[in-house]
Amino acid sequence: MTSELFRHLPEETLTRIPNRPLGRFSDFVVAELPASLTAIRKGRSDYSNLNELSHELIEGLTPDVMATATATQDNADLALLDLLIMDNALVRTTGPNPKLTALVDSLAAANDRPPIITYEDVVLTNPLYTDCRLHTNEEIGLSERDFYIAHREIEGDLDVLIDTSKEVIYILKQDDLNTIGNVAEMLHTAGLRWVDINARMELLWKAMPKEHFITIRDYFLSHPIRTTPDGEKYKGPSGAFTAKIPVFEILFAGETMKPEQFHYFKDNEMYFPRKGREEIQDALQYLEEGSTLTQLASLLGNPPILKTELDQFDHYLNQFRGMHYAGIKHQIPGAVEGNVSGSAGEVKVGQFLKGRMIKHTS
């Protein structure tokens, strides 16, 4: 799929297999809202039409409709995404709808997550290949879809790296030098996933039109109205809140990470995917037991064949972060200099990104 990202034709349209838990409300969010927002953005329409129609649709979300729509966890997650897409649109145009706000609050609380659109929503819950939820349409909408797909595919490759890391850790804990050759081969094969990951990272800033990203980014910014219990604005759906990179990094060489990275997980826990929060805690247990890949390799005397593969992991991880830095610098002028905040709320974006480019192997 990587080679197909951001290569769509202007006349290309999305093929859909409808999955609409909230009926007419979901239909509107998927099929009509992006065009409505485009018309407003381009000055072809004012807010009144969206305000009237959204009010009518929200009033149709009766208790019976909500109960049916949220009968299963998958449907509940998708129904909440539809509510959040609408909320995200309204608060940035016509203003919040009290009933919609109450529905979002109730469903979010019942599902252990914040009442704002998150990385988990747009990248993981979103049915990207069948009935994707978007804020934009036409060419920009296709770029928005590809932006999410690139992140989804990166998540899949990182899952392979994480699973292989755990397998290797189990083998290394047997303290058998006869297995080192096989372990090195496992790491080498898994490491090739980094080639695909970094290719997607490069596409995200070299192939995605900057003007498309700037338009889409407006919907990723901190929520303009809602605040946390501490009085701070809720943060937007940033890639900083993927759990896969920190899980991999902890399993790989968590003992080399900076204290502020662990503080970041704790301070921003609610923004990470729900399953990802559990995965981070699981990875931290490996670190606490002294069972990261680099710790176990050291105990075995850092066999050269093993060290070569771990050095390659280190190279790929920092290459990934370097591409992320280059992408932010290209797509969001002024961000790395600290003149523009990131969607995760970072004020000093460049410092935040560079601070994670560290040497994990000696």
Kindly give the count of domains. 2
Number of strands: 0
Helical percentage: 55-70%
Major beta sheet, specifics? none
Report mean pLDDT, rounded to a whole number.
91
**Which of globular, elongated, flat, extended, rod-shaped describes the shape?**
elongated
Termini gap: 36 Å
Please give the radius of gyration in angstroms. Answer: 22 Å
Tell me, what is the CATH class of the largest domain? Mainly Alpha
Structural class: mainly alpha
Helices, by number, come to 17
Unreliable runs: none
Outline the secondary-structure elements.
Elements: H1 24-31, H2 33-41, H3 48-59, H4 63-69, H5 73-91, H6 98-110, H7 119-125, H8 138-172, H9 180-191, H10 193-206, H11 210-217, H12 244-253, H13 259-267, H14 274-288, H15 293-299, H16 304-331, H17 349-354
Helix pairs in contact: 1-5, 5-6, 8-9, 8-10, 8-11, 8-12, 9-16, 10-16, 12-14
GO molecular function: heme binding; metal ion binding
GO biological process, one term: L-tryptophan catabolic process to kynurenine
